[in-house]
Design a protein that fits this description.
Layout: H1 3-24, H2 26-29, H3 38-49, H4 57-64, H5 68-80, E1 84-88, E2 95-99, H6 101-121, H7 127-160
Antiparallel strand pairs: 1-2
Helix pairs in contact: 3-6, 4-5
C-alpha cells in the first residue's frame, strides 16, 4: 500500500463523516439555527467534564492540539451562536469560558447523534479490530506530534544560534 493512500483515505473518511453528521443533525440543529462542528462538540464536552474548573482558551488549545487562531475562531462562533460566553476575570488578557444553559441541551441532542453514528460506522467490525484501529490512529498521532516537537526544537535552536 502506498503511504499517501493512508492520508487520502483518512481525509476522505473525515469529509464523508462530517457531511453525514451535518445532514443528519439538521432536525436537532434547527432548534439552534446551526449544526455543530466536531471542534465545537469537543469544546462543549470538555467544559461539561470540567465544569468545576475555570477554563481558558489556552487550556482548549493544549487539550485539543489546535492553534490559538483556530480555537479563537471557534470560540467566537460559539459565542455568536449563544453557546458560550467569555468572562473577563482579574487578568483582562485571559477570559474564562463559560457554557450557556442552552448549550447543554444542544450538546446532549447532538451527542446522541454522534453516538448513533458511531454505532452505524462500526457495524460489522469486531471489538478487537476497533481497538487495534484506535491504537494505530493514536500511534500515527504520536508520530506526528514527535515530528512537530522536533521541528519546534530545530527552529528554536536556529533562533538561539543567531
Amino acid at each position: 500500500m502506498k503511504q499517501k493512500e493512508v492520508l487520502y483515505q483518512i481525509k476522505a473518511f473525515d469529509k464523508q463523516l462530517f457531511r453525514y453528521f451535518i445532514k443528519n443533525t439538521k432536525d436537532s440543529a434547527c432548534l439552534f439555527s446551526h449544526a455543530p462542528t466536531p471542534t465545537q462538540m469537543q469544546i462543549l464536552e470538555y467544559i461539561i467534564l470540567h465544569k468545576k474548573e475555570e477554563i481558558f482558551q489556552k487550556d482548549l488549545e493544549k487539550i485539543l492540539g489546535l492553534r490559538r487562531a483556530t480555537v479563537s475562531g471557534v470560540l467566537k462562533t460559539m459565542e455568536k451562536n449563544n453557546l458560550i460566553e467569555r468572562i473577563t476575570g482579574e487578568d483582562a488578557r485571559r477570559k474564562k469560558i463559560k457554557m450557556k444553559d442552552s448549550a447543554i441541551y444542544f450538546f446532549e441532542e447532538n451527542m446522541k447523534k454522534v453516538e448513533e453514528l458511531e454505532v452505524l460506522i462500526c457495524n460489522g467490525i469486531e471489538e478487537n479490530e476497533l481497538k487495534k484501529f484506535c491504537n494505530i490512529l493514536k500511534q500515527m498521532q504520536r508520530n506526528l506530534q514527535e515530528l512537530e516537537e522536533k521541528q519546534v526544537a530545530l527552529n528554536k535552536k536556529g533562533v538561539d544560534d543567531l
